[in-house]
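Render this sequence as a predicted structure.
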Amino acid sequence: MIDLRGITQIYKGPKGPVEALSGIDLQIGAGEVFGIIGRSGAGKSSLVRVINLLNRPTAGEVIVAGRDLTRLNDVELREARREIGMVFQHFNLLSSRTVFDNAALPLELAGLSKDAIKKRIDPLLELVGLNHLADRYPAQISGGQKQRVGIARALASNPKVLLSDEATSALDPETTRSILDLLRKVNNELGVTVVLITHQMQVIKQIADRVAVIEAGRIVEMGRVIDVFTRPEQAITKSLIDEIVPQELPASVFDRVRHLSAQAQGFGQSGRLLRLSYSGEQAYQPILSRLIREYSLDLSILHGQVDEIQNQTFGSLAVFASGQQMQLDATVAELRAQGVLVQEVALED
């Protein structure tokens, strides 16, 4: 559905050219919910605005639904943009227009009749849960309701793609969850491809199928959300995930490890602090209990977290395993063979 090829974006800065995007290649399939995440200034908003050519790239091709938007004339580009809806962070509603009229604005500008507009907008307001507020004005509704109006307006032209540029960052957590649920509903019921721009990994976790991590204008990591969460490779990705799955173990864990390590040495055994990450079916397999019996291990669970992404369980455990050296080696090898990501954490002095 979306194919970005060699996208470079250079702006004029007070001290010379600023490269906001650098040679980005990105493919997003039809019907996906795709997340783009990064810190402030990473280039994510510049990237999403390239998709509908609100930002025209300095170089590269922007292919949406089989058409290279960079090669279209003004009339053709206006037509192509009707297939790309956009939801903004600050709603951008007109205070003098009702909920219905705000949602209907794109259709009015396109010259549709009142009957045609009503036929399109009424079901959309029902979809976003605002049919009972059609005659209210923006000042009379909440922030979450305003964003629902923005979503209905973005869907008015029956787009194939919906771009969401930090659409939930101004909302409280409960309202954020409800808006993200709505975007997933739009994706499921209308088949619209959704592209989410955010700096919050919690947003990605809730509804995205795949995610791209952007840093300094480059895509540095990309994949299925469950894979990126359980096997992050880049420092920026680990930092973003840390808000949901802490990447550093607390000091209390190492205090306990020192005690267990001394205890193991007293019995003539070796000890290792292992960080285990797992997902999917691995979460339901009694791997640890089987290995404890098979290799006569003592195993202490020191820290852990279990969560879910897109109906797939994932989690992280910190365990201290003590036993004979060969048994520990065999245990680590078996865990890795079962698809568990094993990180051996150096014991602190």
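Summary. The first strand starts at residue 2 and ends at 13. The mean pLDDT is 89.
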